[in-house]
Design brief:
The protein is an alpha/beta fold. The chain is built from 12 helices and 10 strands.
C-alpha cells in the first residue's frame, strides 16, 4: 500500500479538524473555482465525508469575465462529480461595477453561494483560502491603515462559511492535486498586475522574502491569528459598554470619554453603521473625526459620513442621523 502523500494528508487533516463538530448527515457545499486550492479542498472534504457521514456537494460559480469560462466551469463540475461530490451546481452570475472588479466579483460570488446553500439546505459552505491568501489579506489590511480588525485577516468561521485551509500553503494544495491526479485551472486573473492582490502576491511578498528572509508568509498568517483574538476581545468589551453609553437619542459623551480609545472607537463605528453607513466605506479617518466630537469638541457642529449619515454633538450627546433634505 502506497504511503499517503504529505500534502494530501495535510489538506485532509485540516478539513477533518475544521469540520469535527458536524453531525453525520450534515450537508456541506464546497465553493470550487477549479483552481488548486478549492479542488484539493473538495477532494479532501469528499474523502473525509465517507467516515463522517456528511453529504458533500459543490458550487462552481461562473463569473463570465473571460472567454471560455463556461467550459471551465462545466469541466470543473464534471471532475467533482467523478470524485463523488453531489449535488454539483454550476451558477452563472452577473458581475456588477460597485466597489471595483474584485469587490463586485466577490459580491456576486457570495450571493450565489448563499442562494445555493439555501436551495440545498446546507448549513456549511467551505472556502478554499490558504495561508498564502491570509498573508496577502494582512498586507492589504496594513496598506489600508484600518486597524487591527482589518489586519486580522479572514476568520476560519463566519456564519455558514468555513475556511479549513488557512493553515495550509498554496504549494501544498498544488502538491495535493498532483498527487491525486487532479488538474487545476489556472485563472489568468491571478497573474494580472491590475489587481492589488496579485501585486502583493507576486511583488511585495517576494521582496519581503528576499530582504527579510524566508517565513514571512507564515509570520503574517500568525499575526492575523493573534490580531483576530485581540480584536474579538475588544469587540466583546465594546458590545458590553455600548448599552451603558446609549441615551434615547444617541450616545453619552461623558461615558464615552471614560472608555479606552480602542473600545470607544468600536462603539462609534458600530453606531455609524447602525445609522446606515456602509461598513466598507467607513474609514479610520471618519471614526477619528467622530471621536473628536467626544474628546476634542470646540463647537464643531457635525461630521459627514458615508451613506448620507451625519454625526453631530448636542450638549452631552453624540447623535447619528440622516439630515432632512429641504424640499
Amino acid at each position: 500500500m502506497a504511503a499517503l502523500h504529505p500534502a494530501v494528508a495535510a489538506v485532509r487533516r485540516a478539513v477533518r479538524t475544521c469540520l469535527s463538530d458536524l453531525e453525520p448527515g450534515a450537508r456541506v457545499l464546497v465553493a470550487c473555482s477549479g483552481g488548486a486550492d478549492s479542488l484539493a479542498l473538495a477532494a479532501a472534504a469528499r474523502f473525509e465525508s465517507r467516515a463522517a457521514g456528511w453529504q458533500v456537494g459543490a458550487v462552481v460559480v461562473d463569473h463570465d469575465l473571460q472567454a471560455g469560462s463556461a467550459a471551465v466551469a462545466a469541466g470543473t463540475a464534471q471532475a467533482l462529480r467523478e470524485r463523488g461530490l453531489g449535488p454539483v451546481d454550476v451558477v452563472l452570475v452577473t458581475v456588477g461595477r460597485d466597489g471595483g472588479p474584485e469587490a463586485a466579483a466577490r459580491a456576486a460570488r457570495y450571493d450565489a453561494l448563499e442562494q445555493a446553500a439555501e436551495r440545498h439546505r446546507a448549513g456549511t459552505v467551505l472556502l478554499g483560502h490558504t495561508r498564502d491568501d491570509q498573508a496577502e489579506t494582512v498586507l492589504l489590511g496594513l496598506a489600508r491603515g484600518s486597524g487591527a480588525r482589518s489586519m486580522s485577516g479572514m476568520p476560519e468561521r463566519s456564519g455558514p462559511y468555513r475556511r479549513p485551509l488557512l493553515g495550509v500553503s498554496r504549494e501544498e494544495t498544488r502538491a495535493a492535486c498532483a498527487a491525486e491526479g487532479l488538474v487545476p485551472w489556472e485563472d489568468p486573473h491571478n497573474a494580472d498586475p491590475a489587481y492589488a492582490r496579485v501585486r502583493v502576491r507576486t511583488e511585495v511578498l517576494a521582496v519581503l522574502e528576499r530582504e527579510l528572509g524566508p517565513g514571512i508568509t507564515d509570520a503574517l498568517a500568525r499575526t492575523a491569528r493573534l490580531l483576530r483574538a485581540d480584536a474579538d476581545a475588544l469587540d466583546a468589551l465594546a458590545d458590553a459598554a455600548l448599552g451603558d453609553c446609549r441615551t434615547p437619542a444617541g450616545l453619552d459623551v461623558g461615558r464615552l470619554q471614560a472608555l479606552p480609545v480602542a473600545v470607544r472607537s468600536r462603539i462609534l463605528l458600530a453606531s455609524a453603521v447602525h445609522a446606515g453607513c456602509p461598513r466598507t466605506d467607513l474609514t479610520a479617518g471618519h471614526v477619528e473625526g467622530v471621536d473628536e466630537l467626544v474628546t476634542a469638541w470646540r463647537g464643531q457642529q457635525w461630521v459627514d459620513l458615508p451613506g448620507g449619515v451625519r454625526a453631530s454633538r448636542h450638549g452631552g450627546e453624540v447623535r447619528f442621523a440622516r439630515p432632512a433634505v429641504a424640499g
